[in-house]
Amino acid sequence: MIESLLVANRGEIARRIIRTANRLGIRTIAVYSDADADLPFVREAAEAVRIGPADPAQSYRNADVILAVAKERNAQAVHPGYGFLSENAGFARTVESNGLVWVGPGADAIAAMGDKINARNLMAAAGVPVAPGTPEPVAGVDAALEAAAAIGYPVMVKAAAGGGGMGMGVAADEAALRTEFGKVQAFAERMFGDASVLLERYFPRVRHVEVQILGLADGRVVALSERECSVQRRNQKLVEEAPSPAVGPELRARILAAAVKAGEAVGYRNAGTVECLLDPATEEFFFLEMNTRLQVEHPITELIHGIDLVELQLRIAAGEDVTVPAETTGHAVELRINAEDPKRFLPGPGRITTWQEPAGARVDSGYTEGNTVTPFYDSLLAKLIVFGADRADALAKAEAAVAGFAIAGPKNNLPFFAELLENDEFRSGDYDTGIVARMRGGK
């Protein structure tokens, strides 16, 4: 087993990884920026090393500094969490070339799935359903207009190097496409250093369903189960539940089999997620992207399977055989508690003057009372996770947990969740990615 682990991340996911590693007797090394010096994950690691100022480019995205700390502190392995360097193929390759264990998929798989056009074409060749779209980057606006006419409006304009809902726009006609193409291209160049853009058919009513996969040490790829992720604002997830209320046994078998094909196509190893769009009217599903890392919403899969995915990640990275139970029980729901206002979802950082977690729920938090939420990073404060015998039981527990969670100081979206959990559309289970917009007066 791995004996020492550097956690190349911050906040709740760093704390989450450290908790499992500590339980397994692994020496943990945290890295932190000046803005995070007082956060819980820094105290809970066996060792903690300052790596730079608040700016992520000078700290959590500074691969050279993080690698230097790993070598200086004799770390045997590096866990990247999610975000920052987690899907950076160059960093993964450098970690391994320096004799350290990378707790994640191989660099080639990360690179293959990081380019959305390449990923789409790989999946199509492997027999995984893909939505109608462009197999190559669109050369310019004129080429985009021509492609959109063949695909049919509305179309999704996507940054080829994007992910996690970033770098996307929807165009319902030619005029909108001209506008969205320029916006997405500029955003992609600024954020990813790659202005390549592709088009896909946009489905106005669609659900976002994903499958947790594990690439095992012996080369096999297994699919655990699916998660429903359709409650979103600006293409960013707010609520996830497992299993999906939209997926029955026959559809589940098809979507899990496709996820295994996706993993096998790139020789996948360790934890990953195959994301799909599901047309609830026809039960057709299409490959969206593969996240080559641990997902934010992994706890709901853990609860219905009775496993620890971080532990499985570490054991797979160490070359151990692991047992993955296929059976699931009950229903789990995760709510992302963010430092943002509950109406427009704009960030609202500040010092936490009250932090009282509810009883009877799992809370994976990055902060506690007295900490300051800064504007430098993602607004996620904590993940509120509940498990019930069935969906109705889980939703009742979620309502109680939201009512029992007290946060003061920064803005937070707990009032939104109280509203959502009373929403008839959400409670029915028959909802789609437009539910938040409809709750806020949109279509």
Structure description:
InterPro entries: ATP-grasp (IPR011761), BC-like_N (IPR005481), Biotin_carboxylase_complex (IPR050856), Biotin_carboxylation_dom (IPR011764), Biotin_COase_C (IPR005482), CPAse_ATP-bd (IPR005479), PreATP-grasp_dom_sf (IPR016185), Rudment_hybrid_motif (IPR011054). This is biotin carboxylase. With 443 residues, the protein is an alpha+beta fold. The chain has 15 helices and 20 strands. α4 links the parallel β4 and β5. α4 runs antiparallel to α5 and α7 crosses α8. The mean pLDDT is 96.
> Which range best describes the helical content: under 10%, 10-25%, 25-40%, 40-55%, 55-70% or over 70%?
25-40%
Mean pLDDT: 96
Major sheet strand order: 13-12-9-10-11-14-19-17
Distance between the termini: 52 Å
Shape category: globular
Strand content: 25-35%
**How does the major sheet shape up?**
8 strands, antiparallel
Q: Poorly predicted ranges (pLDDT <50, ≥5 residues)? A: none
Beta-strand segment tally? 20
Q: How would you classify the helix and strand content by structural class?
A: alpha+beta
What attributes characterize this protein structure?
eight-stranded antiparallel beta sheet; alpha+beta; single chain; 443 residues; 34% helix; 20 strands
